[in-house]
Amino acid sequence: MIEYRAKCSNRFIEGYHRCRKNDLTMRIVVAKPGLDGHDRGAKVIARALRDGGHEVIYTGLRRTPDEIVRIVIDEDAGAVGLSSLSGAHSVLIPRVCEGLRKSKMDNVIVFAGGIIPEQDRESLYSEGVRAIFGPGTTSTEILEFLSTIEQRSQSGDPVGVGEEAGWHW
Amino acid sequence: MALVSDLDELLEAARTGDRRSLSKLLTLVEEGHNSPLERGTGSSLGITGPPGVGKSSLIGKMIDVWVEREESVAVLAVDPSSPRSGGALLGDRMRMTNADSSDLVFIRSLATRNHPGGLMDCLTPMVDILSECGWKNILIETVGAGQSEIRVVAFADRILLVDGPDRGDIIQAEKAGIMELADLIVINKSDLPEAERAAKAVKSALSVGEDDSTPDVLMVSAHSGEGVEDLVDQLRNTTTSADRELLRVRERLISAWDYALLNSAELDITLQALEKGSITLQEAVDRIRKEV
After folding, report:
1. CB count, 10 Å around CB of B268?
2. pTM of this structure
3. Chain B: nearest CA to A147, how far in angstroms?
4. CATH of domain B37-241
5. Is the complex ipTM more than 0.90?
6. Domain extent listing, chain B
7. pLDDT tens, position by position, A83-118
């Protein structure tokens, strides 16, 4: 049954690639960690990703890093986008990365957005964050990032949060 | 496909309470792999109702009650996929606020993938797997806005219809045939003044064809939590009727039929022929039926 689904059978266990006709799309959690009430940006991103053909699970406001990790596990998501405008990014985002690695979710892709100053970015990249999108980013750029991720993972390059760091968008 | 051993292994790990394995297993089943379990061993409660009536919020409160009683809850929250992009925005979790901090709760958001029958085909095995892995209360949530959503909820073993005050939607619900399927009806937002009237309207709509199996109508407020405990108690005793079982099976058959139709090899050719006007609708049906 359902022939077109069979096309991605070799990727099933990796979990993060979905087949729909010929497109490979992902399940992506969009999360707001910590005490941060501003989710306009996260909602716009969620819609842009949906319009790009992805299945987006939006968590709502004020989630703890542990909750976000659990949501990624339960939803079997391939990627998680963390939106932070509260200034707590250097604490909360590494905790999510850490939690994912501890739960053996090493192949999950972590990307971030919001207000994250330039000087804080390098340490987040070294935690396994693969992209940081600031104000003014176009939705096309984020979709390009995701398709680059797809190409990289197909050729076996590290993309997940628990895989060797070194590359970022 | 050569994944039978993977599926068995995942099931084994999921049985011991490994959420990651459970989650992966559900993904595989969603993508069309055969479940390692016999079909129909689990039992589920479908929750449906018009958009914006507070289904997710109410489920959030019901989860709180079950967790307080140390009963586990698993929710399969179904939302539509965008017909244009094929993507989906799945936002049911954001209303179930306390759900992600307890080990007793598992929530999986599912997109319909514009695939009538496709998703429904995997709902039953998903429920079986959750049941096998020890989840006591298994819910399927879907917006009851049209025929395809009714077909989703018809895959549950019992159905709870949620409606709200002053919406005029109960007429819509009746039209869509959800009322006939409901084993229990709740009016949410009982804290609002019009709720009482809505409950009366629903009761009077039901009493027209009254018999022993007429569903009860309860009032709850997901906002204040009032009535939610009673609802959870009532659910334990709610049974379905033979009439409704027949209706559900009918909906399931129709969705299986749709699925076969849409996956028919003759579909494209038949559509083109119809467009050109070279065959009639009846001939088209005959042609596809021969192939199906």
Report:
1. 9
2. 0.86
3. 15
4. 3.40.50.300
5. no
6. 1-36, 37-241
7. 999 999 999 999 999 999 999 999 999 999 999 999
